[in-house]
Amino acid sequence: MKKGIKYGVVFPGFFILGIIFLVLVALLLIQTEPAKRKIARVAETEVNKLLNGNLSIGKIEGNFFTGLSLQNVLLTLENDTLAQIEEINASYNLWPLLRNTLDIYSAEIIRPKIFLKQVNDSVWNVQQIVKPGTETPEDEPKSTGNFNIRLPVFRLVNGLIRTETQDTVIPQRIENLNTELSVSWTKNQQQARLKQFSFSTKTSDF
Fold first, then answer.
1. How many CB atoms lie within 10 A of CB 177?
2. 94-135 pLDDT, tens per residue?
3. Which of 25, 107, 136, 206 could disulfide-link 90, Cβ–Cβ 3.0 to 4.6 Å?
C-alpha cells in the first residue's frame, strides 16, 4: 500500500519534470541555425501562397523570444525585383500576448530598395503583388477585436525608391529616405506620431 502511494506521488512528479525537460530542449533547438533556416523556408512557402510574386529570406538571426533579425529579404514580381531589404530588426516582449497585446519595443527596416512601376494610368506593380481574395461585403459589419499593438519606435533607415512611370512629376529616384514614428493601436483609438521624415531627390518639381 505504501509502495503504491509512493509511486503514485513520484511518477506524476517525474512525468511533469520530463515534460518541462522536453519543452526546454525544443526551445533550445529552435535557436539553432538549421532550425532557423527551416523556419525561414516555411515562412517563405506560407507567404508565397498569398502572393503573385516570390518572397525569399536570406537568413534569420536573433532570439525568437526577445528579438529577431531578417537579413537579405527579397520580393520579386515576374522578372522585376520589387523590394530588396538588407535587414529587418524587431525587439519585442511576448508575455503581453497573454493579455491580447503585441508589445514591440522597436522595429527597423534598414536600407530597403523599392522599385515602383506604373503598369497603366491607375495601376502600379505593388497593387498586383497580392493574390485577389474573397471580398467582404460592404454591408457586413467589421470588428477589430480587442487586440492591442504598441510600437513606440519604428525606423526606416537609408531607403531608396526607383520609379518607372510616364508621369514626369514623379521623381525617378528618391534617396536617403529616413523616417521614425510611433504607433499605438487599440479597439477605441489608433494613433501614429511622425517624429522624423526626410529624403533627397534630383527632381526639382517634387
1. 19
2. 888 888 998 999 999 999 999 998 888 778 888 888 888 744
3. 107
